[in-house]
Amino acid sequence: MTLSPARDGDRPRLLIVRNDKLGDFMLAWPALACLKAADPAPHVSVLVPGYTAPLARQCPWIDEVLLDPGEDAGREARRDLLSTLRAGRFDALLTLFSTPRIGWLGWRAGIPLRLAPATKWAQLFYNRRVTQRRSRSEKPEYVYNMELADALLDALGLAVPPRPAPPFWPLPPGTRDAERARLVDELALEASSPWVFLHPGSGGSAVNLTLGQYAGLVAAIDARLDAASPHWVLTAGPGEEAATDRLRQRLAEAGITAHRLPARRGIDDFARSLSAADLFIAGSTGPLHIAGALDRPTAGFYPSRRSATPLRWQTCNAEAHRLAFCPPEGADERDMSSIDLEAAASRIAERLPHLPTRETTP
């Protein structure tokens, strides 16, 4: 890999690390947008696992993608990564989720400014720390990330720009219409009807509704819309196809037609497909946060435990595009059966007729 000099004019070279799950990475995009809004705009490299790398390459706020071989990598892979970071001659490292391995790596790579949240003993490897206390869930995760980006710019002596607004994944004009045209061709959907995408899986990362609850939710929404019933499109992550097909069968038995999103070429192709949705329904999982970054309207279902509240894991779309549901006060924080799905269906059904089905300019 050819790396440019440490500075391109006055542009600092930054290495940003968010090397865990898909949803966490998507909630880093607002922070990346903050960094690129600085004057001069820095050169932004990211260190990500192979799983999220295809999406990182689609991000307009990223100049270079570096692959993290992970905690279990062998000695040669770890040595190669260290050599790459040293050759990158980065001016600063920002770790959005701090781990001892990454802190030690940044220190050994000789990156002069290393900033991370002031949590865990990994902070010993950083010379700039920001106290956030994220476990209190007082702010959305993506806002915590933007605060770290602001702190990095300030430490570099750059003026902190105004916060950018959604969409944090702005697609080229015509992309949404092209994705809708593709689905019209593949599934024979009517372009004039609302399209509701539903992702019933969780990837094992979050408490979620059961298939039965999702079936009941769909039926309740459908009943409230009468003649204006939407097209239902079910999406699935790797290994979730069978469960998604079981939900589709349950809906068929209730007289509701649902389609499964056809297989896509990769996670980036799958993610762009979500731009076709008029509304995206899911638990607090990666695809929900992709839809949020695209500024698609979302309805998310969350547990209410302190570290996983709807506020903490809020999608990063516009406020008017967000609905969130969780167990009520007094219920067990993980008891998703305590969520009033009839009330949720009413709020979702009220929202649907007012959503544009054609592409609009942000």
Number of discrete domains: 2
Summarize model confidence as the mean pLDDT: 93
Number of helices: 12
Could you list the spans in which at least 5 consecutive residues all have pLDDT below 50? 1-6
Count of individual beta strands: 12
- What's the arrangement of strands in the largest beta sheet? 3-2-1-4-5-6
Radius of gyration: 21 Å
Q: Which CATH class of the largest domain?
A: Alpha Beta
Strand content: 5-15%
Overall SS class: alpha/beta
Helix content: 25-40%
CATH architecture of the largest domain: 3-Layer(aba) Sandwich
What characterizes the major β-sheet?
6 strands, parallel
Q: What is the helix/strand order?
A: EHHEHEHEHEEHHEHEHEHEHEEH
CATH superfamily of the largest domain: Glycogen Phosphorylase B
**How far apart are the termini?**
36 Å
Shape: globular
Q: Do you know the CATH topology of the largest domain? A: Rossmann fold
Could you characterize what this model shows?
The two termini are 36 Å apart. Helix 5 links the parallel strand 4 and strand 5. The protein folds into two domains: 143 residues, 3-Layer(aba) Sandwich (Rossmann fold); 180 residues, Rossmann fold. The strands form two sheets. A six-stranded parallel β-sheet has the order 3-2-1-4-5-6, with helices on both faces. A six-stranded parallel β-sheet has the order 9-8-7-10-11-12, with helices on both faces. 34% of the residues lie in helices and 14% in strands. It contains twelve helices and twelve strands. It is an alpha/beta fold.
